[in-house]
Amino acid sequence: MTDLFGVPIQALLGQLLLGVVNGSFYAVLSLGLAVIFGLLNIINFAHGALYMLGAFVAWMGLQYLGLNYWIMLILAPIVVGLFGIVLERLFLRHLYKLDHIYGLLLTFGMTLTIEGLFRSFFGVSGQPYATPALLQGGVNLGFMYLPIYRAWVVVASVIACLATWLVIEKTRLGALLRAGTENPKLVEAFGVNVPLMISLTFGFGVGLAGFAGILAAPILQVSPLMGSNLIIVVFAVVVIGGMGSIAGSILTGLGLGIIEGFTKVFWPEASSTVVFIIMVIVLLFRPAGLFGKVK
Fold first, then answer.
1. Is 265 a domain residue?
2. The whole model's pTM is what?
3. What would the pLDDT profile of 24-38 be if each residue is shown by its tens digit?
4. Which of 116, 132, 191, 214 could share a disulfide with 69, CB 3.0–4.6 Å?
């Protein structure tokens, strides 16, 4: 059987691969958002700009310092995470007791500032970032051609998501993080530095955005605007999965990427809006999201 509903199987499998790759980016980015909101109650609209920053840190590391992809895969998330800690210490920590809208407005302003600075220095045309030699080429599976780098993106994203989920949900550190945001005075009584823990949590969340940025750099042009459109979709993913739900963000990101890929085959005109249509339906019947807790 070579066709399904009049569509060649090769085309379906190609879109499935594209959907899994896009879903991997959605999962990592929405995971960072879910960590920050679930543990700190901050809606971080600057997440897309920090994703872009991760890609640019990798590009500048290669361009100016000669640091290859593998070094920057570790270094770029750390740099973005440290930058996030500075933002949290200078600005966001003053908003924790206020309404969510203040954090949203502040991080939206940060987005405009960061993107504006990079546009002024690098323009909007984008900079190429070469695929590392080890991951170039592809594998002929008979029914389709699988680029090695795209397979690596999926594997790296799944590993990052599972590791994050295990740390937060299954370890003593994760329990301390959750307890520190729910009852900080009690946790401080046990000698835990809660403000430092909160700063490190925010840094880790935005570090995930930086990690997604360097994964995207060889696939996309490294541009100041690369996170602008993506962040809207990622917010929709978080809302559908449930604000603050770690597992919900991972599963929903991967699932919606696949749905989006198949929609491009059967109804291309709706591929850019299918995520938002699903979001509307979910909000109508389950406002807390698919995996969120109904209060």
1. yes
2. 0.89
3. 888 888 888 888 887
4. 132
Q: Where are the alpha helices (DSSP H) in 123-245?
A: 148-170, 172-182, 184-189, 194-216, 228-241
* Nearest in space to 202 (alpha carbons), one of 26, 46, 76, 97: 46
Task: List, as own/partner pairs, every contact residues 254-258 make where C-beta atoms lie below 8 angstroms and the sequence separation is at least 24, other chains included.
Answer: 254/20, 254/23, 254/24, 254/26, 254/27, 255/23, 256/23, 256/26, 257/19, 257/20, 257/21, 257/22, 257/23, 257/24, 257/25, 257/26, 257/27, 258/16, 258/19, 258/20, 258/23
3-state secondary structure of 139: strand
What's 124's domain CATH number? 1.10.3470
List the domain range (segments joined by +) for residue 34: 3-285
The letter for the amino acid at 194 is V
Give the containing element (helix H, strand E) for 271: none
User: Which are the contacts of 47, defined by CB distance < 8 A and separation ≥ 6?
Assistant: 29, 32, 33, 36, 107, 206, 209, 227, 231, 234
The number of domains in the chain is: 1
Q: Which residue has the higher pLDDT, 150 or 41?
A: 150
Residue 137 per-residue DSSP state: S
**Rounded Cα distance, 208 and 213, in Å:** 9
Residue 177: which of 158, 153, 201, 155 has the closest Cα? 201
Is 293 a domain residue? no
State the Cα torsion 4-5-8-10 to the nearest 10°. -50
> Alpha-carbon distance 14 to 115, whole Å?
33
292 in any annotated domain: no
For 254-270, the pLDDT digits (tens) are 888 888 888 887 787 78
**Beta-carbon-side half-sphere exposure of residue 7 (alpha carbons within 13 Å):** 17
